[in-house]
Amino acid sequence: MSKKIIDGIYVMVKDPLPKNVNIEHTIRNLTLKLPKHILELVDVVYIGSFEFLIKKNVNATFLENAIYATNDQKNQKDLFDDMLHEYAHAVEQTHSFDLYADGLIESEFLSKRNKLQVLLSYEGHPADQYNFSNPNFDSSLDKFLHSEVGYEKISNMDQGMFIGPYSITSLSEYFATSFEEYYLNRRQLVRQLTPAVYDKLEALDKQNMENSDEERNYY
Fold first, then answer.
1. Number of separate domains in the chain
2. Residue 42: enclosing H or E segment and its boundaries?
3. Which candidate, 33, 112, 131, 199, has a CA 20 to 30 Å from the CA of 206?
4. Do residues 45 and 67 touch, judged by C-beta distance below 8 A?
5. Same domain for 52 and 86?
6. Which residues, 6 or more positions from 162, have their beta carbon under 8 angstroms from its beta carbon?
7. Is residue 53 within 8 Å of residue 70, measured between CB atoms?
8. What pTM was computed for the model?
């Protein structure tokens, strides 16, 4: 296993990445996109073939202050996207109360979910057989949306309610997809489509900027 520190981030590569995927480039791109207070939420990044990722059928996960990502990546963008997505979940877990306590993001999400259910039923899909009011991931609903209806069809009919069909699968992914767009400098899109998430991310950034200013003034 190779160990290295890249732009202040501790990286452990258990299994080699494809030749067209450069971990140094990925980490440096992340450090350019994400503020310090978010980068500090991850203690270490592990790259390799991990049995628990294979069993969950996912490419990456955030677990105990670490990001685990598969080394089976198609290209540079795939690895970057996987890691950026997991930083979103790091923020979500660390700031869960700040994000969700007032219920604004969940209310926004479920309101759109219910509208989508009506649209799907109108188009002849058996949407009433599924619980669209459950904010958590539901494998049966996910299968219905992905396999039976199809993400392409949903994208054509959701009337701009969601940032991508994957954001429909759960409240957590609704936040994560918005987080990605926000830090990829598509903030106007986030403000337009998911204003509750936009407001929370703006508040977190502002709060941490104020904390940094107080630290500098103290010293």
1. 2
2. none
3. 112
4. yes
5. yes
6. 112, 116, 168, 174, 177, 193
7. yes
8. 0.91
What DSSP character marks residue 58?
Answer: -
Contacts of 17 (CB under 8 A, 6+ apart): 23, 47, 71, 73, 79
Angle at CA of residue 145, ends 140 and 151, nearest 5°: 150
The tens digit of pLDDT for each residue in 100-122 reads 999 999 999 999 999 999 999 99
* Nearest residue to 175 via CA among 116, 119, 94, 118: 94
Sheet of strand 66-69: strand arrangement: 2-6, 9-13, 44-47, 66-69, 60-63
Q: Is residue 215 part of a domain?
A: no
- State the residue for tokens 């259910």: 117
The two three-digit tokens of residue 91, written as one number: 């923020």
CA distance 66 to 18: 22
Chain centre to alpha carbon of residue 152 = 20
Strand partners, 69: 47, 60
pLDDT, one tens digit per residue, over 50-82 is: 999 999 999 999 999 999 999 999 999 999 999
Judged by DSSP in three states, 164 sits in coil
User: Do 20 and 84 lie in a common domain?
Assistant: yes
Same domain, 203 and 111: yes
- On whether both 83 and 179 belong to a single domain, the answer is no
* Domain region containing 83: 2-94
Is residue 214 in a domain?
no
135 token code pair:
């904010």
CA distance 17 to 73: 7
